[in-house]
Amino acid sequence: MGKVVLVTGVARQLGGRLVRRVQRDPEVERVIGVDAVVPEHHLGGAQFVRADVRQPAIGRVLAEHAVDTVVHLDVTGTPLGAGGRTSVKETNVIGTMQLLGACQKSPTVKRLVVKSSTSVYGSAPRDPAVFRETTPPKSLPSGGFAKDAVEVEGYVRGFARRRPDVAVCVLRFANILGPCADSPLAEFFSLPVLPTVFGYDPRLQFVHEDDVVDVLRIALHEPRRATLNSGTFNVAGDGVLLMSQCARRLGRPTLPVPLPAVTWVGSALRTVGVTDFSPEQIRLLTHGRVVSTTEMRRTLGFTPAYTTAETFADFARSRGEGLVPPQALARAVDRVGEALGASPTAPGGRAPDVPTQSDAG
Predict the structure, then answer these.
(1) Rounded to whole angstroms, how far apart are CA atoms 194 and 180?
(2) Distance CA 140, CA 145 (A)
(3) Would 298 be classed as within a structural domain?
């Protein structure tokens, strides 16, 4: 008998892609997709069950299908359809509590994979250069999706203590980008002009949506080594990009805003529904965040197919040209930099090389 895998959050593109991919694995017998919303995309041969993870009915789904592997993807920062921030928080936090409660009572569940985020580390001026999985944050997130992710991980740790027989794998993803990316940061980079924080050029990391599907597939299977039985892993593409490099590669001009006024700009953008420029995202775009992926490679045995730069390039191609062609924008910035005595970028508008994660530690 093969695995019986239940995946939550299948109405989103990422969940749908994982469901379709997992069905091709010879070790998997059946896949059950769960969501409160009927997906608009096809799920292949998987069985779809319309169920809200915030309700106790999720326990009946686990029991009825004798599920042994649960992949919890219904932890997100953006609403689906008409839902707002309140609905998102309830799904993230209350939904996770209900799901874990159901898993705790289920005698068949043997493996749990949870989608989390590197936003649990927060973004603060005194942050370390590189966060490892064991590095405590200097300043815990105070709200938004980042706080949800912190609470979710807390509940998962409690579940792992109560059910030590269940292998628990938590994947902390960096900012997910790609042609089908659905996130506040993807919306931000789609703006014609990018508001930035005056005087700051944060370091950013990205992970490609294809790599997200691949590492989730690896995590839901039995480990090749005993040390992989449970654990928390940072997942990101190699290398980093500066915000200024991102803007140039998109061909979008930036609008530097003094730090005290950034919150007002964010509120205005949220009010008109342009993008979710939350306080946590403002902190990320001010101080940045870089994580170590050593454990992902060494213990999880996963090497992303896309670097951070390649991930962003694929995302940029899907968004089309910006207001200014990247080459023209690069030349203009180079001329300004030379006039101010700054070091110009490399020929062809390519930004200077940035150390890889292995270089950073």
Answers:
(1) 20
(2) 12
(3) no
Distance between CA atoms of residues 242 and 262, nearest Å: 19
Tokens representing 327 are 């080459």
DSSP 81-144: TT--HHHHHIIIIIHHHHHHHHHHH-SS--EEEEEEEGGGG---TT--SSB-TTPPPSS---SH
- Conformational region of residue 115, where left means phi above 0, alpha means psi within -120 to 50, and beta covers everything else: beta
Given this model, what pLDDT does residue 359 score?
A: 43
Among all chains, which residue has been given the structure tokens 């997910």?
176
Q: CA-to-CA distance for 283 and 279, rounded, in angstroms?
A: 6
Q: Do 80 and 95 touch, CB atoms closer than 8 A?
A: no
Report residue 295 as tokens.
């454990």
Overall pTM surpassing 0.70 (yes/no): yes
What DSSP letter does each residue of 8-70 carry, written as one string? E-TTSHHHHHHHHHHTT-TTEEEEEEEESS--SS--TTPEEEE--TTSTHHHHHHHHHT--EE
Residue located via tokens 């960096």? 174
Residue 102 belongs to domain with CATH number: 3.40.50.720
Q: How far apart are the first and last CA of the chain?
A: 42
- CA dist., res. 170 & res. 234, Å (int): 9
Q: How many domains does the chain have?
A: 1
In a domain, 212, yes or no: yes
Q: What is the dihedral of CA 108, 113, 115, 118, to 10 degrees?
A: 140
* Selection from 20, 221, 215 nearest residue 111 by Cα: 221
Residue 357: what pLDDT?
Answer: 45
Examine the pLDDT at 271 and tell me if it is beyond 70: no
What does 232-298 look like in DSSP terms, one character per residue? Answer: EEEE--SS-EEHHHHHHHHT--EEEE-HHHHHHHHHHHHHTTS----HHHHHHHHH---B--HHHHH
In tens, the pLDDT along 201-233 reads 999 999 999 999 999 999 998 755 444 457 999
Residue 21 falls inside a structural domain: yes
HSE (side-chain half, CA atoms, 13 Å) at 116 = 30
- On whether residue 339 sits in a domain, the answer given is no
Determine the distance from the C-alpha atom of residue 152 to the mean position of all C-alpha atoms in its chain, rounded to a whole number: 14
Range of 41's domain?
Answer: 3-177+206-236
